[in-house]
Amino acid sequence: MDLPVTAVGVDPPTGLVPRRVLVTGGAGFIGSHVVARLMLMGSQVRVLDNFSTGRIENLADAVCGGLTEADVISGDIRASEGVEVIHEWQPDVVVHLAAQPSLPTARRSPLYDADVNVFGTVNVLDACARSGVRLIVNATSSDIFGSVAAHELPVREDHPIAPVSPYGVSKAVGVHYLDWYGRQHGLSYTSMVLGNVYGPRQEGGDCGVVSLMVDALLGGRQAVIHGDGTQTRDFVYVGDVAEAIALACHHSGVGTVNIASGRQTSVNEVYDTVREAFGVDEVARYEPLPWSGEVRDMALDTRRARELLGWHPTVGFTEGVRMTVREARRRQTGSHILSPAWALSR
Ligand SMILES: NC(=O)c1ccc[n+]([C@@H]2O[C@H](COP(=O)([O-])OP(=O)(O)OC[C@H]3O[C@@H](n4cnc5c(N)ncnc54)[C@H](O)[C@@H]3O)[C@@H](O)[C@H]2O)c1
């Protein structure tokens, strides 16, 4: 399967500020940064989220920027009532971030993963196509490429899709549906292949090696490295991702575009960087990889994003980890901005 790189409506920048933007999954890690960024750029923003992993506290910055209780819709992308806001509010752009984003969860429960990531995505796309949404900006993952040979890194957008995990499969299916809705219904889209996103507000849990390590050291626990730690991923700071998504909302659909740093960073290097940001010299504990068939190395080629969106990453890994650790410490001491009063009843 080849990735559909060229989408309907590849145009130069429109320069138009999107008037109304609906962000599905807007209370999540990436979504909350996107909502704040879009509001700063002058758009009216609404959030659709079922708060399965998202948190109202994540929207504190956006509330300071003018987001109100009425702009936060509690609903499920899998339900017809959930996507009703698209028909009623008629956003000109939909940023689709709501998802089951965890690889381990997808392995434990492929049915749940497919329900949210495939069925939920099709429900959103269908509502967009029926409501005349100008543009959909979608988040997919480098996991759609599966295992890539070393000489093919960094991966370009036209690399064959060959996922090796249920999460990679469900995210790849979303990409194919986007392409179909584009061709069949003229739905213009930008589908962002994200590297490993890290930064403030990422929850530990199953997601994100940086936040897992930060949480461990913050809680006085030993960090765990699965495997020998030489496996690599492409890490990109959440602020850079939010900027890319906000920029995409100000363009016509550009098809598939990689959003990452373009560099491989090993898990051992991640730990050293986190450890240095904390100023400690604890060693990590090595444990076997929980699954066979893990992707060994990953990096994404970001030239297309630079050419079509004028985007490039601005935050280096060391700087991004330092900002993440600083914010995690601030949260631990409770000195972050508190939730709005209306949020407390949720
Ligand atoms: N974090 C990463 O490294 C990364 C990498 C590649 C792609 N992505 C993609 O980026 C997007 C955002 O991921 P994230 O890391 O911010 O995860 P997240 O879990 O913080 O955000 C997902 C949001 O979607 C909401 N949600 C989940 N199921 C829903 C449903 N059925 N209906 C309505 N809302 C629902 C959650 O409550 C949450 O607010 C996802 O599409 C994910 O697959 C993330």
UniProtKB/TrEMBL annotation:
Keywords: Lyase. It is an enzyme of class 4 (lyase). The keyword Lyase applies. Residues 22-324 form the NAD(P)-binding domain. GO terms for molecular function: GDP-mannose 4,6-dehydratase activity. Gene3D superfamilies: NAD(P)-binding Rossmann-like Domain. InterPro entries: NAD(P)-bd_dom (IPR016040), NAD(P)-bd_dom_sf (IPR036291). Its EC number is 4.2.1.47. PANTHER family: DTDP-D-GLUCOSE 4,6-DEHYDRATASE-RELATED. This is GDP-mannose 4,6-dehydratase.
